[in-house]
DNA sequence: AGAATGACCTGCTGGC
DNA sequence: TGCCAGCAGGTCATTC
């Protein structure tokens, strides 16, 4: 369900409450995308040392290892002192001395994976190929340009791929390309400095604003504390095929790239 | 090696 | 009203 802002808002909503807690039980439900990778008993007794984020993964640091949590397309976390019995789509509970962290994920594209350390093979497989963190100091114009210059694939696909920059999902990919005036089909390597600068700025600004606003992309999004996201970042092009462009009035178009929908304004976004 | 496809799983919407 | 096709926020493995 989440793009980066939702994952970050989720992290902030429970990181401080769970930090320092001792794990009392780990209760898996139906299979998720990947197996936990260890016996639930192995987690018991470990302490939660903090919660970080890398791309769309949450990293729950434990006294002896870490849990990689991914929300997939439809996952969400709750953290509360106690929670009712697991419902139909609750597929993982981490019971701690400070509350229960619960993953609800109807489509089960999400996962909770244990790794002995961040260098462990599982962690490397999942995190090793990830690109720049768009909200970090490392996300400079030069770094983005260097990454994009190396790929001839359409820019929309490159943004979604996560190897150059992480966290830009299907909704924000359309939005930032609109703000930068770039057609989604343009080869990444063909983007000139002017539009590249606008793209860099758009990625930084849009994601930062969305985090600030509490994760506003999703219809059903709510943080782990149960606070609903507002809908303040109205999409300029995403989901608006056939409607007039808010900037020029042209009709917003939709096309399929890699089986995902891309939305763009044919006038504001040049090939 | 990079780039395009398929796969995973469930729920909701829209058209007939 | 009911059924079915198509679509949905992600990303890894497989194929070309």
TrEMBL record:
Keyword Mitochondrion: no
Catalytic reactions of this protein: 2'-deoxyribonucleotide-(2'-deoxyribose 5'-phosphate)-2'-deoxyribonucleotide-DNA = a 3'-end 2'-deoxyribonucleotide-(2,3-dehydro-2,3-deoxyribose 5'-phosphate)-DNA + a 5'-end 5'-phospho-2'-deoxyribonucleoside-DNA + H(+); Hydrolysis of DNA containing ring-opened 7-methylguanine residues, releasing 2,6-diamino-4-hydroxy-5-(N-methyl)formamidopyrimidine
Co-factor(s): Zn(2+)
SMART domains named among the record's database cross-references: Fapy_DNA_glyco, H2TH
Alphabetized GO MF terms: 8-oxo-7,8-dihydroguanine DNA N-glycosylase activity; class I DNA-(apurinic or apyrimidinic site) endonuclease activity; damaged DNA binding; zinc ion binding
Active site annotation, chain numbering: 2 (schiff-base intermediate with dna), 3 (proton donor), 56 (proton donor), 260 (proton donor)
EC number: 3.2.2.23, 4.2.99.18
Biological processes per GO annotation: base-excision repair
InterPro entries, per database record: DNA_glyclase_Znf_dom_DNA_BS, FPG_cat, FPG_Glyclase, FPG_N, H2TH_FPG, Ribosomal_uS13-like_H2TH, Znf_DNA_glyclase/AP_lyase, Znf_FPG/IleRS
PROSITE patterns associated with the record: FPG_CAT, ZF_FPG_1, ZF_FPG_2
UniProt keywords, alphabetically: DNA damage, DNA repair, DNA-binding, Glycosidase, Hydrolase, Lyase, Metal-binding, Multifunctional enzyme, Zinc, Zinc-finger
Binding residue positions for DNA: 89, 107
Cofactor-binding details, from the entry: Binds 1 zinc ion per subunit.
Domain of life according to the entry: Bacteria
Family that this chain belongs to: Belongs to the FPG family.
Subunit structure: Monomer.
Listed name of the protein: Formamidopyrimidine-DNA glycosylase
């Amino acid at each position: 369900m989440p793009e980066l802002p939702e994952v970050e808002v989720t992290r902030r909503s429970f990181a401080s409450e769970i930090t320092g807690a001792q794990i009392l039980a780990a209760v898996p439900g139906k299979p998720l995308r990947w197996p936990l990778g260890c016996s639930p008993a192995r987690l018991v007794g470990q302490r939660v040392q903090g919660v970080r984020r890398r791309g769309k993964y949450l990293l729950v640091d434990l006294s002896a290892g870490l849990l990689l949590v991914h929300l997939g397309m439809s996952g969400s976390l709750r953290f509360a002192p106690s929670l009712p019995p697991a419902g139909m789509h609750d597929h993982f509970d981490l019971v701690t001395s400070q509350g229960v962290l619960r993953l609800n994920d109807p489509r089960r594209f999400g996962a909770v994976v244990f790794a002995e350390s961040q260098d462990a093979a599982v962690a490397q497989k999942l995190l090793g190929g990830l690109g720049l963190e768009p909200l970090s100091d490392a996300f400079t114009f030069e770094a983005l340009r260097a990454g994009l210059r190396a790929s001839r694939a359409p820019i929309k696909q490159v943004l979604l791929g996560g190897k150059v920059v992480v966290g830009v999902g299907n909704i924000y990919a359309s939005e930032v390309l609109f703000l930068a005036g770039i057609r989604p089909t343009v080869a990444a390597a063909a983007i000139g400095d002017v539009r590249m600068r606008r793209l860099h700025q758009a990625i930084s600004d849009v994601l930062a604003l969305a985090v600030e606003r509490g994760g506003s992309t999703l219809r059903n999004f709510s943080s782990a504390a149960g606070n609903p996201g507002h809908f303040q970042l109205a999409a300029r092009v995403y989901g608006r095929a056939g409607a007039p462009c808010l900037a020029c009035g042209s009709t917003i178009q939709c096309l399929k790239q890699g089986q995902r929908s891309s939305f763009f304004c044919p006038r504001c976004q040049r090939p």
